Every structure is written in structure tokens, then in C-alpha cells.
Q: What sequence folds into this?
């Protein structure tokens, strides 16, 4: 799950980021050029203007495996993939096992409806192993080496589950206190808004208004604002509380099970003929945003311009509001490959995996069909060389997938602030960084909004890959990867390590030490084609 960026290292940090607007990023910045525009976009506009004008391209199918996409969005409807051999008639016209898959498929929907909320993988694993190992007496040893290994894995899962679930129960209480404190401050001051100086002068009378004061001051400091409005504060606190409640009610709830909606045999990890054709699902905000970054119509004068200009988006729904399931991810990859996708965007991830081998097999299958997979590195500000983030390029038994690009998120801000403070990183496991902060793109109801996340950085990279494949169709998946990584613009100044106040060179945070760049990639592809 990489849908929302929630900083829970401290309640004030979460609160402040959600309630106070950041300074605005330059419009369309992810498509801008570092030298011309003084912002580390991927030089899309410069590339089309100087290198690709008048050149012919071929359409490229990009599969977006996500939570759902609005196929009728004004800026997307012309670029949505249409299955050429399927009609909306209740029949499986192309005999691929999926009825009416006109624009793609959903592996998390069925006759009873569509999955919206789901648990985290750690919750599902904890519930599974708790029944087996809770209370196990190990004083006399283990029945086998396999049992010992599995038991120790259970202890790791249990510790992670307990830490996460207790944290969110704590946040429930904190936000209630903050809300009560903000109300007390407003009553005491009898004002609808306060300046920073007025808030500084306020003398707390309880723990709750002291907490509220500190949280709001922290937000003002981070944003550079000098005042706030109470109504916006209340709305943001309630929004934060709602998110926390979702974690308590669904993410960490061992008794919650959404799978009955799908109607498959969940324990059969190789079962693949299940789901439905409702590719939008109940919450299409994230997937619509991702699709827009890749391929929003560049010629209609509406909304935004995506990175690639000759793309068809295949919509595959496999990611709920919670952790995606390995069975669904593997089937989504295989569906994309079998139905003609040349590039797959995967803006999701999780800390545990229950059936990694099934996903690994699907990744290898994609490689045999020359399909490139681009994956978001995650939003936990963690070093994935040390801490796991699934799915990933490394297969069980060793070896990295040659058709896999792992992408961290960069900002429009320069120097030490270039790295997004939420982005995962890793000298070995993250390949490259790409724009992922304040990215304006499509959302449902033909609207637009700016989101931040490695979920945005991955489709920027997928858009560049699609652009290359479109104008240089002979390039293989491994060649596309090689070009994107080698052509990345190197950034040699020291930057903040995400989540820390320490600085380091970008080359210590990812393999390339660079930011994705379409202009340099096209130059390299042109040379390679000759």
C-alpha cells in the first residue's frame, strides 16, 4: 500500500503536514528541464521540441496495476486501452478467460461487489501464524529446523504487528486530545483565526491545548505561514482521525476479511480466472492520478500533459486501501503481459510478503515476453537495502530481474531538499530517483490535484520508458532499463537522507545517483538505434 503518505513518527508532524499547505511547486514541473527551468523535471517538453518533432511513433500499451482508474476522465478517455477482440456483451469474445474485459480487469472484485478496505500483509500473516505458534513451548527445542525458522519468522511478524497496531491506538487518543485542545484555544481567544505571534502568546491550561498549540506551531514553521484558520484545523484533524481509524478498523484488524467479496479460492495461489471487469472500483483517485502522469492527453488543451504522447493505458485493479495480495499482483502482471502491455507501472508495496515466489514467477514471465516493470520504492523513508519492501527485483534463490526499475521520489526543490523526505532509498535496491513531490495530475470526475509519493515518481519513469519505446520500438525491456539508468542526470551536491537531518550524496541513496531524464535518454536511444 503506497496510497497515502502518512508520517507517523510523531503526531505533530503528521498533523502539521496535513493541515498546512506547502509552498506551490512550479506548474507542470515534472515535465520541465533542469538547465532551462532550474528545476529537476525530466525535460519532457524540451525533448519533444528539440529531439522528437516530426518523428514518427508507434502506440505503446502501458498497464497500470493500481486501485482503479476513471476511464472516462476528460484527459484520459482518448488514451485508455480498448481490447480489440472483446465486446461488452456478457461473453468472453476473445476466449482469454475474462468476460467483458474491454479496458482491463479487476482481481479484487466479484459478484458481491468490489474490495475497498483490506488488512495489511503483516496482519494477515500474524493471524495465520498466531493460530499455530502462539504459546508454543520451545524449552525442549523444535520439531524440525523448518519449524524453528517459521517460528522465528512468526516472532518477527508478531513484533511488527504489535508495534504498528499499538501505535495507531495511541494516535486515536492523541487526535482526540488535539481536537479538544484546538477547540479550547478557539474558545479562550474568541477568534476564528490566529497569527503565529498570537498562538505563541497563548498560555495553555491543560495537556490537550498544549498539544494542539505545539502541533499547529510546528505546521506553521514547516510551511512558512504566519497564521491559521480554526475551521481548516478542525477539518484536518478529522481527516487525520479518519485515516487513523481505517488503520485500526481494517489494516490491523485480524478479524476483518474482505476476500469473500472476490469469490475465489484464496488458498489456490495459481488460480487466475476470478474477478470482474469493473476497473474503476470504489476508489479510483490514486490510479487515475498515476495514469494521468504517464499519458494524459497532450493535445486536447485540457488539464495536464502526461509524459508520453502515444500511449494506451490498460487498467488493472489489484490494489485495495490496504496491502495488495501476492496472488492478485502475480495475476495482474500475467494479465498485462498476455494482453499486450509492453510496460507495467506498479505504484504499490508492502513490508511483508506471503507468496513472494508467485510474484517472482510472474516477473520472470514478463521478462520472457520483453515487458518492463517499473515499481515505486515506497514512502517510509527507510533504507530498503536493510528493510524489505515488496515486491522487489531480487528473486528467491538469487538474481535480480533485468526488466525491473525501482524508483525513489525527488522534489522540485534544489540542493539539500532535492530528495523527498518520505522516499525510501537504497544504494543497491533503488535504481534511480524521479519527480514525486507536488505532482499535478488527474483525479476522478475529470478533476485535477497535486499528490506526492514514490507512487508519482514511478509513473513519471514509466512515461519516459513509454516515450522511448514509442519512438524506438526495437528497444528491449533490458535496453530500456539500461538507457533510463545510464542517462539519468547525476546530482553531485549533498542532499538530505529521507527522514533524517543528515546529508549524503545521491549516489549513496540509489544505484545511479541520478534523476530520470527523457532528453538524455532519447539522445542515448538515438545513438543505440544507429
A:
Amino acid at each position: 500500500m503506497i496510497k497515502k503518505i502518512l508520517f507517523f513518527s510523531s503526531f505533530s508532524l503528521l498533523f502539521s503536514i496535513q493541515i498546512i499547505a506547502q509552498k506551490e511547486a512550479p506548474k507542470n514541473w515534472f515535465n520541465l528541464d533542469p538547465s532551462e527551468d532550474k528545476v529537476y523535471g525530466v525535460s519532457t517538453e524540451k525533448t519533444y521540441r528539440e529531439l522528437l518533432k516530426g518523428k514518427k511513433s508507434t502506440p505503446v500499451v502501458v498497464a497500470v496495476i493500481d486501485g482503479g482508474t476513471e476511464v472516462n476522465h476528460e484527459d484520459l478517455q482518448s488514451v485508455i486501452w480498448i481490447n480489440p477482440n472483446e465486446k461488452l456483451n456478457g461473453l468472453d469474445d476473445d476466449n482469454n478467460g475474462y468476460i467483458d474485459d474491454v479496458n482491463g480487469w479487476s482481481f479484487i472484485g466479484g459478484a458481491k461487489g468490489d474490495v475497498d478496505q483490506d488488512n495489511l500483509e503483516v496482519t494477515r500473516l500474524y493471524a495465520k501464524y498466531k493460530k499455530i505458534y502462539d504459546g508454543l513451548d520451545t524449552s525442549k527445542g523444535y520439531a524440525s529446523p523448518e519449524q524453528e525458522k517459521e517460528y522465528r519468522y512468526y516472532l518477527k511478524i508478531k513484533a511488527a504487528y504489535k508495534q504498528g497496531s499499538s501505535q495507531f491506538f495511541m494516535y486515536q487518543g492523541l487526535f482526540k486530545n488535539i481536537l479538544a485542545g484546538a477547540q479550547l484555544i478557539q474558545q479562550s481567544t474568541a477568534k476564528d483565526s490566529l497569527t503565529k505571534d498570537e498562538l505563541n502568546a497563548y498560555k495553555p491550561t491543560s495537556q490537550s491545548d498544549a498539544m494542539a498549540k505545539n502541533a499547529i506551531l510546528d505546521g506553521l514553521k514547516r510551511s512558512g505561514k504566519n497564521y491559521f484558520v480554526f475551521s481548516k484545523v478542525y477539518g484536518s484533524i478529522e481527516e487525520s482521525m479518519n485515516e487513523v481509524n481505517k488503520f485500526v478498523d481494517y489494516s490491523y484488524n485480524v478479524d476483518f476479511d474482505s476476500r469473500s467479496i472476490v469469490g475465489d479460492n484464496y488458498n489456490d495461489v495459481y488460480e487466475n480466472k476470478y474477478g470482474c471487469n469493473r476497473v474503476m472500483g470504489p476508489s479510483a483517485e490514486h490510479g487515475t492520478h498515476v495514469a494521468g502522469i504517464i499519458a494524459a492527453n497532450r493535445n486536447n488543451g485540457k488539464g495536464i500533459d502526461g509524459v508520453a504522447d502515444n500511449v494506451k493505458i490498460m487498467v488493472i485493479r489489484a490494489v485495495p486501501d490496504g496491502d495488495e495480495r501476492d496472488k492478485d499482483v502475480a495475476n495482474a502482471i500475467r494479465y498485462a503481459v498476455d494482453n499486450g502491455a509492453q510496460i507495467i507501472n506498479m505504484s504499490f508495496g508492502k513490508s511483508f510478503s506471503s507468496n513472494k515466489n508467485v510474484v517472482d514467477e510472474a516477473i520472470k514471465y514478463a521478462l520472457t515476453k520483453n515487458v518492463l516493470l517499473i515499481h515505486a520504492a515506497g514512502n517510509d523513508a527507510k533504507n530498503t537495502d536493510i528493510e524489505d519492501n515488496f515486491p522487489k527485483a531480487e528473486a528467491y534463490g538469487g538474481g535480480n530481474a533485468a526488466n525491473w526499475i525501482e524508483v525513489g521520489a525527488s522534489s522540485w526543490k534544489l540542493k539539500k531538499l532535492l530528495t523527498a523526505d518520505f522516499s525510501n532509498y537504497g544504494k543497491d535496491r533503488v535504481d534511480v530517483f524521479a519527480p514525486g513531490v507536488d505532482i499535478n495530475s488527474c483525479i476522478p470526475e475529470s478533476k485535477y490535484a497535486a499528490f506526492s509519493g514514490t507512487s508519482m515518481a514511478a509513473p513519471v519513469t514509466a512515461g519516459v520508458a513509454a516515450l522511448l519505446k514509442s519512438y524506438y520500438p526495437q528497444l528491449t525491456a533490458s535496453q530500456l532499463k539500461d538507457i533510463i539508468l545510464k542517462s539519468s542526470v547525476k546530482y553531485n551536491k549533498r542532499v538530505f537522507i529521507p527522514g533524517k537531518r543528515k546529508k549524503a550524496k545521491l549516489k549513496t541513496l540509489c544505484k545511479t545517483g541520478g534523476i530520470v531524464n527523457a532528453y538524455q535518454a532519447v539522445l542515448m536511444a538515438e545513438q543505440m538505434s544507429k
Q: What stands out?
A: Residues 121-251 form one domain.
